[in-house]
Amino acid sequence: MAIAIRLADSNDAELILSFIRGLAEYEREPGAVQATATSLRAQMEADQPPFECLIADRDGEAAGFALFFRNYSTWTGRPGLYLEDLFVRETHRRHGIGKALLRRLAAIAVERGWARMEWAVLDWNAPAHGFYRAFGAVPKDEWTVWRLDGAALAKVARD
What we know:
5 helices; 5-stranded mixed sheet; Aminopeptidase; alpha+beta; 25% strand
C-alpha cells in the first residue's frame, strides 16, 4: 500500500469538490455546500489563492484531502496554519491516510516558520477527537467559535 501526498492544483477542482461534498455528507449537512468546481478552480488560479489543498492518493486512487490556509496570531506575532477540512473517503480510512495528511500539514507549518496549527471539530465527532488527541493536539474548550454570515452579515454591513 503506497500513500502519496501532493499539493493540489486548479485541475483538481472537481476532485476537491467531491471531497468537500463527502465531508458535508459525513457531517450531516449534505445540502450546505455552495462551492462549485468553477469557483474553486478560479480561486486556485488567482494571484493570491485563498487556500491550499493537499491530496492523498492510496495506490493511485484519490483517497483524501486537507484544505488549509494561513491565519495569524497576534500573540505569537507569527502566521499559523488553519485546517479548514480534512477528510478521508470511508473505503480508505484506517490505512494511515489521515495521519499522513496531518503530518504533511505540520511539516508545511514548520517549513514556513508558522507558529501553530488550528482547526475546529464538531462536538459529536468522537473519532476525530481521538485521532487528533493521539497527535498531542488539545481542544481549546475555553474558546467558542462565533460566526456571522448570510442575512446577518449583510445587515451588519449595512447598519
